[in-house]
Amino acid sequence: MNNPASSPAENPPHGAASRRGPFRPGERVQLTDEKGRMNTVTLTPGGAFHTHKGFLLHDTIIGQPEGTVLPNTTGQLYQTLRPLLSDFVLSMPRGAAVVYPKDAAQIVTMGDIFPGARVVEAGVGSGALSISLLRAVGDAGYLHSFERRPEFAEIAKGNVETIFGGPHPAWRVSLGDFQEQVLVEEEPGSVDRVVLDMLAPWECLDAVATVLAPGGVWINYVATVTQLSRTAEAIRADGRFTEPEAWESMVRGWHLEGLAVRPDHRMVAHTGFLLTARRLADGATGLVQKRRPSKTDFSDEDLNAWTPQAVGEREVSDKRLRRVARDASSTIQRGALPPEEAQARREAEKDTEKDT
């Protein structure tokens, strides 16, 4: 399949023009007020951004350089900037859950998505990951996205064209099941990277092994431990890939205000697991990593190793247990007595304990 992109010398990086210069009609602009609240609007001649504290005319923003601070009709100030990729992804229309920026960044880096690479992905969802992959492969690259649901493909197409200012020359979308369609539309060994975001990536193992070039990277994004385990074991059993590696990323922001420097109370913790493996050459047998033997059943020795004495816990005497039991049963009774009578009862209990 021919590369759909022209040479870099003929065309500048796609979408670069829309990221520079003064604001133009049709652009999305991020408005931030003095309390840090952000709103994203699409500039329309004659339009206005309304709040309970007045309104800001779009015509006031159009033609201004990025980073301008403008007042609305009541003097409320707004900072105007073009949304960053992370801002756009979290605010764009979505039909399915998006791949968070922290995971998309890991996929691009750990998947080694390079300029000019030939990449296939499934499924597209709302197009968040597709945008990051297109930025990484560039105009001279190739991204073939597979999606089962036509409505998701349409949403993704709209989001991609919004952020790039039009159709991306390196992007192609196909409808259908990945494991069937990719074998029809891609030549064996012609793909550099495979990125899967789906429920059962292990079902695509043969398809991935067929289209992925030797040394190519297969990276999976899964949500649960069960998916992670099953995919890893399927890759190990297949023998055509290197030992799989898995991880997750967590991002925690920090509050910065004078000397009040501390972690934010909220963080983006678990969103999904990432698992990678690389395609071996045809005929090669993957190395079996040496591991300590593991057991699924407990032996008598294992059970004896977890007694209280074995883990250093002090043995409690019967005498102490009796005292604690008496204390527990008489606490309410003592609390209901006058102080002098309660003290007398405690002394009597001590004498009884000495006798025993």
UniProtKB/TrEMBL annotation:
Which residue intervals are annotated with compositional bias (Basic and acidic residues) in the record? 342-356
* GO process annotations (BP): tRNA methylation
Write out the GO cellular component annotations: tRNA (m1A) methyltransferase complex
Protein name (Swiss-Prot/TrEMBL): tRNA (Adenine-N1)-methyltransferase
Query: Pfam families of this UniProt entry?
Result: GCD14, TrmI-like_N
Disordered: annotated segments: 1-26, 309-356
Q: Where is the composition biased (Low complexity)?
A: 1-13
Q: Which PANTHER family match?
A: TRNA (ADENINE(58)-N(1))-METHYLTRANSFERASE, TRNA (ADENINE(58)-N(1))-METHYLTRANSFERASE, MITOCHONDRIAL
Q: Which molecular function terms from Gene Ontology are attached?
A: tRNA (adenine(58)-N1)-methyltransferase activity
What organism does the UniProt record list as the source? Arthrobacter crusticola
Domain tRNA (adenine(58)-N(1))-methyltransferase catalytic subunit TRM61 C-terminal, first and last residues per copy: 90-255
Q: Which UniProt keywords apply?
A: Methyltransferase, S-adenosyl-L-methionine, Transferase, tRNA processing
